[in-house]
Amino acid sequence: MAFQTPMFYKYYSRTYRIDSTPDGGLMGTILNLHTGFFEQDQDSSHILELIWSTTESNIRGPFDEEKFVQETEFERSLYLTGDGPIFALYDTIKGIDDVVRREERRRTPQEVALIQALRKRTFKMWEDEAARRAAGEPPSFTVTSRLSPRQ
Fold first, then answer.
1. If you ran DSSP here, which 8-state letter would residue 84 be given?
2. Whether 61 contacts 7, CB under 8 Å
3. Which end of the chain is more exposed for a tag (fewer CB within 10 A), N or C?
């Protein structure tokens, strides 16, 4: 059976992307909530579970790339702290949500659009940072996970 890739899912609190390999197989990458970067699922152990899941409450998807970006950035902002412009943008989003909660209302369409745009921007910044590090450049920011080391 052929699958249209890429496919995007959420596996527990981590976003997961499935891509085709040159030999016709499938490969998965999963968000690491300790580093903020995507890692290859070495044995692609979650792929069949994701593709064939029908009722698992901890699996969501497949969904489109836009939702994948938004979900990824939501999880990064929830589980990671650090310095640099990415985290300043997460603080901006948190500030918007703090006002919304304090005023006991829903986000306005303008706030929703701004948050979506900021998350697209932070996603691209993470991708650029991953490429820089893969090229052997030193990290441009530090990141700390709010999770305990064994989670």
1. S
2. yes
3. N
Give CB contacts under 8 A, 24+ apart, made by 138-144.
Answer: 140/84, 141/82, 141/83, 141/84, 141/85, 141/86, 141/87, 142/82, 142/83, 142/84, 143/35, 143/36, 143/80, 143/81, 143/82, 144/80, 144/81, 144/82
Phi-psi region of 36 (alpha: psi -120 to 50; beta: other; left: phi over 0): left
Q: Hey, how many other C-beta atoms are within 10 angstroms of the C-beta on 64?
A: 10
pLDDT tens digits for range 16-68: 999 998 988 899 999 999 999 999 987 777 888 888 776 667 888 899 999 99
